Amino acid sequence: MNRPRRIAFLSEHANPLAMLGGADAGGQNVYVSEVSRNLAQRGYVVDVFTRRDSPATPEVTSYVPGVRVINLSAGPLQPRPKDELWPYMPAFRDALQHFIERDETHYDLVHGNFWMSGWVAVELRRRLAIPVVQIFHAMGKTKRLHQKRVDTSPGDRIQSELAVIQQADSIIAQCPHERFELVNDYGADPRKVALIPSAVNTNIFRPIARDEARQRIGLDTQQKVIVYVGRMLPRKDIRNVVRALALLVQQDERTQDASVSPITLMIVGGESAQPDPLATPEIGELQKLAAELGVTHHMRFIGNRQAAELCNYYSAADVAVTTPWYEPFGLTPLEAMACGRPVIGSAVGGITYTIKDGETGLLVPPRDPAALAICLRQLLTQPALCLQMGLAARRRVEQEFTWSMVAMRTAALYEMLLTERLQAPLPLEPLSLLSLPLVSNTTSAEEMDCDAH
Ligand code: UDP
Asked: Which numbered atom of ligand 1 lies nearest the CA of 269?
């Protein structure tokens, strides 16, 4: 490389500097943060473009050497749910183009994150004649299938995804299931789909002895501990874990076999660092369910925690659990694995790829508390098996799932596309032909209670 390659990384709602754990701040933020920083370590210069959501946020922030975060004004200067951002995407595109002209930056490639930034990315592709790599993080058809009426996505999400898939030069699938969705549900050209699994930061997420971890977080107990870490959304189905917990407790009481009792379910995530059912309605739902099932005193809501602290929570547990209805990739199972803990996960999406069933954890059907209770009992009564699976889990992430590997594969993809472009340059299109259709969202307030992604 003569001069460093410059990459425009678009992520309209997921800012790499955001606090994580709330409804719209999770895996995508981590991806943008880790991939941009690891690309910079490989010599790329990366500008992450995101939506400015506060007047106090400066337009440009230097993140780490080689990475800037550019906050573009598009829509209100306040946080908005991401499903309300679609109408602001033309303004986001125009602000981005303005910034490029003003800053006199020449980008070599655009990397779009999520479908809305994908739309902006392909718009930019036509204006600047540079290649586009797109990663969706979640697909609209799958979300609609599972969430049906409560899917708050704008009505033309799927149509826009189809257009982005047609026009992007390459699409990253994070796991074989996502590749299947892209090719089979959306008719993507399989040659355009690159499988690059996401990863975990193995320096931040590392095993800590169980008792030490418990001491660090003030968990003064010798009980069996199950941990859930993640956004608090209905589709993550933490209610399923509460139901399985109740089954375990009832079984122990009925048979007077205390093999998994006493037991605690620790739940990390939500809008605030203190668990607050007003700020995080799903906490209220879980509290109600726990009371109905008589397991209130077996549950501990922690609130959200940031990456540096999370390894204490994973390591304090005997087993980590995540049983969503669907999961595009799922970073939290990898984080628990990196902390040397076995994970029980539902056999959906990326989880079937990251967890090696029977080796690093167990897979269960979603929405099946009885199956989850059986697996929990199996692991909680066998500490030696947990230890063995935890060791295998850590080995697996070190070998297969590090962000430096993701950056290496992403860089190889960029270089391939840039070489192709050198041989066959993209035509610059006249502005009059530009702009994909943009249809406004009509979601009723009563439907707004559900998930994200
Ligand atoms: N997370 C966090 N603090 C919390 C809850 C979650 O930092 O209190 C992080 C978690 O560690 C993970 C991400 O949010 O890195 C969630 O990513 P995942 O892919 O599991 O789910 P998504 O948010 O993409 O649905």
From this structure: 8
Q: List, chain by chain if needed, residues with CB within 6 Å of any ligand 1 atom.
A: 20-21, 26-27, 30, 229-231, 268-269, 304-307, 310, 329-332, 335, 453
From 178, 229, 282, mutation site for ligand 1 pocket: most ligand atoms within 8 A of C-beta: 229
Residue 165 and residue 290 in one domain:
no
* Residue 90 reports pLDDT greater than 80: yes
Phi/psi of residue 170, each to 5°? Answer: -150, 150
User: What sign for the dihedral angle of Cα 231, 397, 378, 315?
Assistant: negative
Same domain, 178 and 188: yes
Tens of pLDDT along 355-402? 999 999 999 999 999 999 999 999 999 999 999 999 999 999 999 999
| Structure confidence at residue 453 as a pLDDT band (50, 70, 90) | low
Q: Is there a domain that residue 146 lies in? A: yes
Residue 205 lies in a domain: no
Q: Which of 114, 217, 332 to mutate to test ligand 1, by most ligand atoms within 8 A of the CB atom?
A: 332
* Shared domain check, 303 and 324: yes
Ligand 1 centroid – CA 423 distance (Å): 41
What does the alpha-carbon distance between residue 308 and residue 104 come to, in Å, rounded to a whole number? 37
341 in the same domain as 264 = yes
Least confident range from 143-157, 201-215, 327-341: namely: 143-157
Domain that holds residue 13: 6-199+402-448
CATH number at residue 331: 3.40.50.2000
Q: What are residue 193's DSSP bridge partners?
A: 171
The pLDDT score that the predictor gives to residue 424 is: 84
How does pLDDT run across 32-70, given as a tens digit for each residue?
Answer: 999 999 999 999 999 999 999 999 999 999 999 999 999
Outline where 186-306 has alpha helix (H): 210-216, 238-255, 281-293
Mutate to test the pocket of ligand 1, among 19, 20, 143, 311 (most ligand atoms within 8 A of CB): 20
Sign of torsion, CA 332 333 338 344? positive
- The dihedral sign for the CA sequence 225, 226, 228, 229: positive
